[in-house]
Amino acid sequence: MYENYYGFKERPFQLSPDPRFFFASSHHQRALSYLQYGLDQGEGFIVITGPIGTGKTTIARNLLNNIGDSNIVAIQLVTTKLNPHELLELVASEFKLTVTSDSKADLLREIEKYLISLSQQGKRALIIVDEAQNLPSETVEELRMLSNFQLDNKPLVQSFLLGQEELKGIIQAPNMEQFRQRIIASAHLKPLSCDEVKDYINHRLQQAGCNKEALFAEKTFSVIHEKTLGVPRKINIFVDRLLLFGFLEELDNITIDAINDVAEEMQIELTGSINTQQLSSNEPSQSKQVEVNAPEHVENVKNVLREVEDILEGSIKQKIKMARYVDKLLKQKNRQFAQSNIEKTES
């Protein structure tokens, strides 16, 4: 789309985690340092928490990409609500173990046998659990039980847990005392500060090969921070749309006016969907008779209609912009085709 226009080798603000674009804010660097410390210790749990979109998965990918120790056999689990038995099945599957029985005892036996074989080769296992807030407490406890596998008083497996803030509540439950005693370090990720947003954007632009100086005006970074609240995933979504907008409008630089225009288009995406109140299906319908013509209800209907009108207007604007974008691409392709024909004729 806009890559050629702005001289990028690739899109700088893709949503998929890419270790090449990893930006180490102070919080992210501390979390990485704790994970590395855990690797050096070879035992215990490391717990990394943070709000949605703050880069937990990116940290996990960065760690896996830079472990640099062939003696560590690492797997990454992206969890849903697994019970303890399902967790063991997933662990066995990720380690590529063949288990002929569905019983928990056989699963544990095969996993332990595999871990012992690793240890005999001078290796050890690492389990990185992403989205760990989805795990019930009894499944987290199963991870602790796996950490009991030892050979010559050395743990055979280590686990790192990364999850949203709800993970804290699971770990702090009264019945999780034994698990808490196995945690050797924990860190909490926070959104980026205004200065970090500037450094983050410039870092990703440079990684993508940006050849334009001052693509973003200096004052734009504080506005982007305000619109995205410093959350890296929201920054990626927002700045990606900004660059597309700049391409469609043929802007050499991204200005505050452009940011405000795009923020208005993306209001729902950045702040969440419109809140509407609906009657619960459990509420008795005869509890209250609604006066349709009452002034407050008329005003409510007007507000809803205004909201619908705003949404439709935004949708129409988006369709117009996309049509302009397609038209622009067709013209660009026609120019390239014409130039190619001229060069063939001349040769």
Q: What does the model show?
A:
This protein is α/β, with parallel strands linked by helices and 347 residues long. Helix content is 53%, strand content 10%. The protein contains 14 helices and seven strands. It has a five-stranded parallel sheet, with helices on both faces. A two-stranded antiparallel ribbon has the order 4-5. A hairpin with a 2-residue loop joins strand 4 (150-151) and strand 5. The two termini are 31 Å apart.
Features of the shown structure:
7 strands, elongated, two-stranded antiparallel ribbon, alpha/beta, single chain, 347 residues, 5-stranded parallel β-sheet, 53% helix
Summarize the amount of helix as a percent range.
40-55%
The span between the termini is 31 Å
Low-confidence stretches: 273-293
Shape: elongated
Beta fraction of the residues?
Answer: 5-15%
Number of helices: 14
Q: Tell me the strand order in the biggest sheet.
A: 2-3-6-1-7
SSE ordering: HHEHEHHEHEEEHHEHHHHHH
What about the largest sheet? Answer: 5 strands, parallel
Number of strand segments: 7
